[in-house]
Amino acid sequence: MNTKRVTKILWIATTLTLAATAVAQPFTRDDWNRAGYVLGTRCQIVNLQTGKFLDLDGAKILQASSEAEGASQWEIRKSPAGGPARYRIVHGSTGLVMTERPSPVAKKPSTLVAMAASDDDTNQDWRIESYGDGSVMLIAASGKALDVPSGNRRDGIALQTFLRNGASNQRFLLKPDPKH
Questions:
Q1: How many CB atoms lie within 10 A of CB 155?
Q2: For 41-68, how does the pLDDT look when each residue is reduced to its tens digit (9 = 90+)?
Q3: Strand partners, 147
Q4: What is the pLDDT of residue 176?
Q5: Which of 80, 118, 138, 161 is the most exposed place for a label (fewest CB within 10 A)?
Q6: Interior/surface letters 96-131, b for 16+ CB within 10 angstroms, e for the rest
Q7: CA–CA distance from 37 to each of 18, 134, 174 (Å)?
Q8: Is 151 left (phi over 0), alpha (psi -120 to 50) or beta?
């Protein structure tokens, strides 16, 4: 690849990232109220692009097609390790916490996400940013966003964190659980 083309690709990627980042705002109490979600209660987390629910298979976080197939219940709690805008995303029935697993390759754009017991690890802290359309972006301590790889619509696709781009495969809806 020639230098001009690489420079242009990097410029476009940077511009798109900055544009997407500028749209997102910190999640406020008003956003919680608009979403109908009460901090610490159970919700379902649905990807905006695929319409699929976050679910578990052991410690692996994946997407499932419908709540009828057992989509997991999640709780968003204040983080004991983080500041006022840090949260923990806790699986409702297991009590395990969504954790970003750092890549051994320092510059790798994607990172594994798994469930783990709660501890003082900041890799379990997440920020929530609102897009004003009811969707949110879940941002790991690394600054990467929770992501459905390439917006894949298949059930069972494992989620990851990836460089933020604001695309709908990185945005989620917090649906209050009517059963809890």
A1: 15
A2: 888 999 999 999 999 988 899 999 866 5
A3: 160
A4: 83
A5: 80
A6: bbbbbeebeeeeeeebebbbeebeeeebbbbbbbbb
A7: 29, 11, 7
A8: left
> Considering only CA atoms, which of 176, 175, 167, 89 is closest in space to residue 126?
89
Lookup result for tokens 């006022």 = 84
Residue linked to tokens 């460089």: 163
| Sequence spans of domains, the chain | 25-176
| Contact (CB, 8 A) for 160 and 111 | yes
Digit-coded pLDDT (tens) for 69-93? 456 889 998 888 766 688 999 998 8
Which pLDDT does position 19 carry in this prediction? 40
Q: How far is CA 155 from the centre of its chain?
A: 17
Residue 51 tokens read as 């319409």
- Which CATH topology does 25-176 take? Trefoil (Acidic Fibroblast Growth Factor, subunit A) (2.80.10)
